[in-house]
Amino acid sequence: MARPAPDAPRPTAAAVLNEAVRALAPDRDANPLVARIEAGEAPRSVFATFALEQHQVITADRLSFQHLARRADGDPPVADFFDLLAQGEALALTQLAGLTDACELTARDITGYRPRPGCQAYPSYAARLALGAEPTDVAIALTANFAAWGGYCATVGAAMRDHYGFPDAACEFFAFFAEPAPAVEEQARAAVQHGLDTGQAQPAAAHRYGRLLQAYELMFWNSVAD
Fold first, then answer.
1. If we measure between CA atoms, which residue out of 154, 151, 152 comes closest to residue 171?
2. Of 23, 71, 135, 188, which is the most exposed, with the fewest CB atoms less than 10 Å away?
3. Which 3-state string (H, E, C) describes 72-100?
């Protein structure tokens, strides 16, 4: 009698996250604005637009992460991940002040600004995910997007010093996201492992979400450039 085939090994959270980052990575030439900034060819005005739009994005994303944390209240590793992200958004807003000041933006400029639809597509979709998507799958999708976002921030932060003469304080926002975040990475693995162990995680759905997040990420940068 033939022996039954052994069960396939269960995927680990690290493997699932690494595959999402690999599979959803944007093409190297997908972001023309970052390439122009890297070369010092973008107008300085894009940084003011970026700062104004990010005030809107950060505020919206923080609410989305807080809602995801509440939805995952019965799954502590997942809730902890989104709580950590919400705290990070609050800190990012304080880091953005250096860029706001360097661009000579006033409180009236910020409150009276009319956001560009293409820049706000990303947080709008994140809010949609916060309302109805499985939180663990959102964690996978966000991890892939954060990898791309962090790379863009590293490139922009370096170019701001090399080509545009911005002071260090103006670059702190980009440095915040460009630097490794071991606590976020560790919590992401814990959240996804919990999702895999409980059967909640569906990587195929997470990849669908991630592809749209990456597309809306690029839409943000393209709209800043308009």
1. 154
2. 23
3. CCCCHHHHHHHHHHHHHHHHHHHHHHHHH
